[in-house]
Write a structure and sequence with these properties.
Elements: H1 6-26, E1 35-39, H2 43-46, H3 51-55, H4 59-70, E2 80-84, E3 87-91, H5 107-112, H6 114-118, H7 132-137
Parallel strand pairs: 1-2
Antiparallel strand pairs: 2-3
Length: 144
């Protein structure tokens, strides 16, 4: 749980932003950057997890993912990966279809369409580049 650990959570989130920016800036020099959210049976975890849980989380799993991410054949950059036990996954952002408004819209219009703004159902996207949100933003407003 993150309750009572705002500073720790903020730091972890900053690492993600830093990693993504490094990936963008390093691309022209073939430098890759990824972030790993590891879960391993370490001494630090021993104070908060029982031995049987620690036994199910070999640190070699984390090392194996990191070794691949560092290998010259790995083309991933800007990725965020979870790894623990015998499982690894890539995380990603997603975006709702959103809602387009007429010029001069106000908080009332936002409130009226907040369900549409927040709906991750039909039309959700998985952005893969930093400019995709801008492409939506610069489209003309709806005509009234």
């Amino acid at each position: 749980t993150w309750v009572g650990q705002a500073n720790y959570a903020a730091m972890k989130t900053a690492v993600l932003g830093f990693t993504y920016t490094l990936a963008l800036e390093g691309e022209k020099r073939n430098i890759r950057a990824n972030a790993v959210a590891p879960l391993g049976g370490t001494r630090m975890m021993a104070s908060i997890r029982p031995p049987e849980v620690l036994d199910a989380l070999p640190t070699s799993s984390v090392a194996n993912l990191v070794a691949y991410l560092c290998h010259e054949s790995c083309e991933s950059t800007g990725g965020v990966f979870e790894v623990g036990g015998h499982w690894a996954s890539r995380l990603g952002w997603r975006r709702t279809r959103g809602a387009r408004f007429a010029a001069g819209f106000g908080p009332e219009e936002v409130a009226a369409r907040f369900g549409e703004i927040s709906d991750f159902g039909e039309g959700a996207e998985y952005p893969s580049d930093p400019d995709s949100g801008e492409a939506h933003s610069v489209r003309p407003p709806l005509r009234e």
